Structures are given as C-alpha cells and as structure tokens.
Amino acid sequence: xxxxxxxxxxxxxATPLALDGxxxxxxxxxxxxxxxxxSPARDNAILICHALTGDQHVASTHPRTGKPxxxxxxxxxxxxxxxxxxxxxxxxxxxxxxxxxxxxxxDPATGSPWAMRFPVLTIRxxxxxxxxxxxxxxxxxxxxVVGGSMGGMQAxxxxxxxxxxxxAVVVIASTARHSxxxxxxxxxxxxxxxxxxxxxxxxxxxxxxxxxxxxxVARMAAxxxxxxxxxxxxxxxxxxxxxxxxxxxxxxxxxxxxxQVESYLRHQGLAFTDRFDANSYLYITRxxxxxxxxxxxxxxxxxxxxxxxxxxCIVSFDTDWLYPTAESRNIVHALNAAGAPASFVExxxxxxxxxxxxxxxxxxxxxxxxLEATI
Amino acid sequence: MSLRPDLAIIAAHVAxxxxxxxxxxxxxxxxxxxxxxxxxxxxxLEIDPGNVADAMARGLSVMQGDADRDLADYPDASFDYAxxxxxxxxxMRPHVVLDHLLRIGAQAFxxxxxxxxxxxxxxxxxxxRMPVTTLLPLEWYETPNIHHVTIDDFRAFVAKRGITVVDxxxxxxxxxxxxxxANFRAEHAVFLLRR
Lengths: 375, 195
Fold this sequence. Notes:
heterodimer; A: alpha/beta; Rossmann fold; Rna Polymerase Sigma Factor, Chain: A; 2 domains; eight-stranded mixed beta sheet; two-stranded antiparallel ribbon; 9 helices; 12 strands; about 30% helix; B: alpha/beta; 8 helices; about 25% strand
C-alpha cells in the first residue's frame, strides 16, 4: 500500500513555489485525500477543487464538525463521480487552514505563525501547488478537474496554467473573473474581521482568542450571497422565533434575533468560526477578488483556452446571483471563440449559488455522462 | 436506434471526419450517430435545458442557447457543416439564422416541414382551420412554428439571396419524392446549401 494514497494525507513539497505576487515559498505543505484506486497506467485521476471555505474532506467525515464530506452525494462508488471508474484527489488549497500551508501555519524562518506575513496568493498559485502535489503523487495527466464556485475558477485556471495535464474540465456555478459586486461583498467580510479588536493585525494565534465575532459577521454576509431570495422566503419568510417566555410569534421590541432568518444567520456565522481561520478567510477572499482569467491572457479570455485540448462542461444555476448565468455564458463565448469542445447548461434550482452542493438529478446525470465520455 | 428520415439523409451525406455544428440539436441523436458512425467532431446548440442535459449525458458537446441570439458568437468558417434540422420555422429571424449558418459552416444542411404539403392545403381549403397533422402536431396557439415556409418559398428565398443549392431531398412519409412534385407531395425538405 502506497502511503501517499488514502484519507487524511499530508505532503511536504520542498520545491520552491514562485507566487504571482513576487514572493517565493521555499516549501509548502498540502493536506489532501485520495479515494478509489489509481489505475496501473495512472490515467484515471480526477482532481476535485473545493470552494472558498471547503476542504479536502470531499467524501469523508469532517474531523472538526463530524459532518459528512461536502460532496459525498456526488463522490463514491456508483455515484456520479464514480469511484469504481475514477481515482479522486481533493486537496486543501494553499492559504487555507485544514492542513495546507497558510497564514495559521508556522513560518520556519521565525518559528511562529505566518499570520499576515504570509504572502498574498492567487487562484493560479493554488493551481500550481496542486500541480506540485500531482508530481508528488506521480500523476502526469488528470482525466478531469472538477470544481464548483472557487473550485470552478481553479478548474478554469488549470486548463490555462497546466494545459497539457488535464483532459477535461467541469466548472459549476463559477466565473472567469470576480465582479465589482463579488469584490464588494468580500470587502465587507474582510472589514468585519479586521474591525474585530481580537484581530490585532492578524497576530491572534498565541492566546486562543481569535476574531470570532468579525469572522462570524463575514460569514453571515457571505452566506446571504449563497442563497436566493425565493429560497430564504420559502424557508423563513418573516417568521419569528419562539421566545423564552413562551410567547410564540411575537416581537420582542429589542435586538435579539426576533426573526428566524436572523437566528439562522447567527448560527451559520458562529458555527463557521469553529472550523475556519479568520486570516485564511482574508487570504482566500483576496485570491478570489484578484481572479480575472482574461487579464492573465492579454485581456482576451479566449486566449486562456488556446493551449488546452481539454473538453469543457460549464453549468450554471438560474437563481445563482453570486455567479450568475451571464458569467458562465462569458466563459462559453470564449470557449467557442477558441474552438474548444464545450458544453453548457443552465439548470433550474430554487437554491441560488448553494445549488451546486445540493440534490440535483440533472447535475448528477450531466456529471456522470461527461466524465464517462472522457474514459 | 433509427434516425428520423431527414436526419438519416443528413447523416448519410456528411463527410467522414468532418466538423459539424448541429443547431437545434435536441437530445443529440444526430450528433451521436455522426460521432459513432462517421467519426465526426460534432458540437450542438440547443434551447431546451432538459435536451441539453440528455445530450451531455451522452458525452456530447452541447451548448444551451438560442439560435436567434447565440450563433453570432461562433467564429467564421469554424465548421465544415452547420445543420439546422426542423428549427428554421421556429426562429424569430430565420434569414439571419441562415446567414449565420453559411458564415459558420462551409456548407449548411437545412431541413423543415413543408407547409404546402397537400394535407396542409386540404385542411386550410376544406376545413378552414390551421392544420394539425402528424408533422405539425400542435394547435396554432402552442406550436413553436412561427414562420411557416413552403418548399417553393424556400427555393425563391435562396435564389434571391444568391445561395447555392448543392443538393436537395424531399420526403413523404419517410419515402423520397421528386423535386418537381415536392411542393405538393413532400412533408419534409432537406437542402444542402453553400454561399
């Protein structure tokens, strides 16, 4: 049994990684998991890229929350990403906090956490780090790169950055660039973290009091963008919380969480602080905001796809207003202009951006068919 | 799986190994046949998301989109053939769609139901009602066919626009019918065109 493969792995990659921002990391740690069996020809590997606050536990129990893997409905034997046919790799992105190098890890030069001294990253830097992980695993070419949201941006970046190493690309609920509105929401989140007195310029690791209030507000603001108005209305409407004095459905004329939607958001915010590092949130949202695949290719998105021979599958959801269908169409136009073999579909869902993580028989069918055609 | 007669004609006349854009490709039946039997690099455009999902599940490259709006995004001369089967009569601007087909493809296959077929004529003449036939199965208010066209209309249209008819096939109940009688006897027409 090769110790590089299996759940809960970590690799120290000692090749220097030159970052887009100009800095070089002499060595990086990448936490990752693999599922299924790598074929003797090493040609059945699929890399799954996670979203902003996701992690490598795509189909295994999360160690901190105890919840099932974030895409366990999609990945498994007999599932759309079928482990009887494919070997799956999922790695924690560079800059995150689930075992890969990031602001919470130790800077070997000082022996203390990097905090804000960690270099600012780009999506392309994350992809290059994933490429180094593949070198470590002895995998030359991927059967496919699959990702939703920020994972979709990594998948797009793969086709442009390492075009010879990927045969197929699946991009779900994503975009080729962050819009002003996307950047604006992220800036609200970053300001909330940095306004928390516990943030202290990012040096909060020593005494165990992180900027949880700020991170929680950041998560609340972001969480709204993952849902649709219709979804929120269906789930909460204007319904009120049950009150401590037993009076159901009455306003308190105070500032407790009267509305169920307030209570829900507060819970989402708090639960997030148990599993995520505030500085990592700053770094990854920054990488997202810097993402503009066209800008990296002379301002012409089609040029990003000139080198690749990969097949593309682009999927959007009609109620996703974070990365709306127009953004996927923008990718599709560029793929057409580059003559790339590409499919695109807008699926219908009431759940907004989060739809890509939820039950969707059509997405399952498309994923299965598209991946089978790559074999 | 046997192809619809007009699709079978198109499939039989597409050169092996060519590049094809199927506009209004439905669930990808023709594309799959071209890929599997003639080694064709086929791409599709289809308006209905359920059909797109079906085609994608077959491993085909299909874009969800609208021929009236999205053909403009395809580069000039990027395909050997552009195919428009049973879609011309549903387009908002059929003449613009046809211009795009002949810009994108070196040649274009166009198939459509013939509104001058005798059964249609009889329905209008004797019944005074918009025809509901096996070929035109929906009532006037729910049919997607908004630009009814006859074979003679189409012949006049391509002649006026200086488009060359490379070949043409006329079908009645799956059987071929002559060009001379086509406007009366054919239910379907398939034209192969080039600029």
